[in-house]
Amino acid sequence: MKISKIIKLTAFALFVCTLQAQAAVAIIVNPSNTEVLDEKAIAKIFLGKAKSFPSGAGVIPVDLAQSSATRITFGETVLDKSESQMKAYWAKLMFSGKGTPPKEVATDAEVLELVAKNPSIIGYIDASSVTEKVKVVHQF
Amino acid sequence: MLKINKKLIVASIPLCFAFSANADLKFNGFMSIGAGMTLGDDEVFLIDEQTGAEYTNDIAFKPDSIFGLQVSSDLGDGLSATAQIVAIGGNDFEADFDWAYIQYKMTPQTTVTIGRLRSPFSLHSLYVDVGYTYNWIRPPVENNYPADLLKRIEGVDFTWANSLGDWDATASFTYGSSEIDAVVSVGPATIKFKDIMGVNAQMTYDWLTFRAGYIKEDATVTIKANNFTPPVNAGNKVLTGAVVAEWDNYTLKAEFFNRKFPDNITNHDRGYYLSGAYNIGDFTPHLTYSAYKNTSNNNSEAMEDYNSIIAGVKYNFHPSAMFKIEYIKRTADTSAEAQAAVIANGGTPAGDADVIAFAIDLIF
């Protein structure tokens, strides 16, 4: 193979790899929501520790399905828990009456719909699914 | 004094589900299949003081096997009803309600729960049946004796929980009564607990968690076989504490209990454990030292004195399931005279034992 072709192929391969590394997760809220949220505050909401937004307004976190790749990435990055650590965390609370996990929906589209309709809802989706109907508060 | 008709409460919980045809019904459950044995001919290792489940030199599957099913209904406006039925191998898999309660969220931070509840003795006591939630096959038995005899309470619990910056805090007050069948040193008995009062608080700051608890109760032990022995007053007070440190892939955990009985029973017993675990991908090896001592106020000689070293590995082979292997080396330091005294009282002193046990835990 010609050197130039190899270089082009390598460059293309690297480009594709970077694309995959940038498969980002976006945390979204309703466009009317003006809350200031950092990663720690978001984690507390999704772990059920914070029962409201920083302003005191009620918050309803929404999760994707347990096996979803986006959810697993969200868990590992924002909540600092692996899939099984998440299950153990909620099992402790759920089987002892101390808490229930957030509602689960199957697709990014369902999250978008819920967030667009309700200012209390906070969810996360693949960054590529973001539309102008929602506001992104954090992305990684 | 609060009198609660236990049967009425437990029976009425299923009715809540019958009437709430529109409410969401959520089913969850857990299962542990365990097997274990001691490695020496005469070696015996007691797992549960109430059921008498133990490991001997023949492999046994019952002591660490558990099946649990929970159904929960959100009735809306902060009200929910939950029932959890558990069958433990140590009890011949007799299914019984471990939890059956109505819960009301008074505010986002405060919750009241009424019905049958698990007793809040330690870090793990509320979910001790769910092996999936901790590294051991079962929490170290040396720290678990008070919870063995008082597993459930029929009563009420008030819990407050809040989060502020790096702090998370929760506090609970529990009140109720209980009645169980148990096998004590002189034979089968009924133990009635009343005026059970427990308070506990837990505080987490970033990677550090502290827990403190205090439970006191009145208790009378009635020996079944014997009409001549009057019921024995066995009320007691138990102080508990725990600290957990979690950072990177390390977890360090320590817990203790200290129990005092009234003057007619001169016992004073206490136990504790220190445990360390390290996560390597899907594997978590762990090492624990636990110890128990039971002394008599009349006699400085320890009636029971033994400790265990627990070494094990937890392997998360599936997101919803884990495999555990555990080796326990127990050393009894009780003096020969004290052991003889326990035998004279109709009991079996805990002796040296080497235990190997396996378990698969899963949740759904």
Short note summarizing the structure:
Chain A has 140 residues and is of the alpha/beta class. Helix content of chain A is 41%, strand content 17%. Chain B has helices spanning 6-19, 145-149, 336-344, and strands at 24-38, 45-46, 54-55, 66-76, 79-88, 95-105, 110-118, 152-164, 167-184, 187-205, 208-223, 232-233, 236-247, 250-260, 267-278, 283-296, 299-318, 321-332, 353-363.
Entry keywords:
heterodimer; A: 140 residues; alpha/beta; five-stranded mixed sheet; 41% helix; globular; B: 364 residues; mainly beta; two-stranded antiparallel ribbon; 3 helices; 60% strand
Task: Tell me what the structure shows.
The complex is a heterodimer of chains A (140) and B (364). By secondary structure, chain A is α/β, with parallel strands linked by helices. Helix content of chain A is 41%, strand content 17%. Chain A has a five-stranded mixed β-sheet with strand order 3-2-4-1-5, with helices on both faces. The mean pLDDT of chain B is 90. In chain B, the strands form two sheets. Chain B has a 16-stranded antiparallel beta barrel. A two-stranded antiparallel ribbon of chain B has the order 2-3. In chain B, strand 8 and strand 9 (167-184) form a beta hairpin. Chain B is mostly beta strands and 364 residues long. The longest helix of chain B is centred in the first third of the chain and has 14 residues, at 6-19. The interface between A and B is medium-sized, with 21 and 33 residues.
- Terminal CA distance of chain A: 38 Å
User: Helical stretch count of chain B?
Assistant: 3
The radius of gyration over CA of chain A amounts to 18 Å
Pair with the biggest interface = A-B, 21 and 33 residues
Instruction: Give the helix/strand class of chain A.
Output: alpha/beta
Largest sheet of chain B at a glance?
16 strands, antiparallel, barrel
Strand order of the largest sheet of chain A: 3-2-4-1-5
How many strands of chain B? 19
Order of helices and strands of chain B: HEEEEEEEHEEEEEEEEEEEHE
Count of DSSP-assigned helices of chain A: 5
User: Which geometry of chain A do the CA atoms define?
Assistant: globular
End-to-end CA span of chain B: 40 Å
Strand content of chain B: over 45%
- Cα-based radius of gyration of chain B, to the nearest Å: 21 Å
**Sequence of secondary-structure elements of chain A:** HEHEHHEHEE
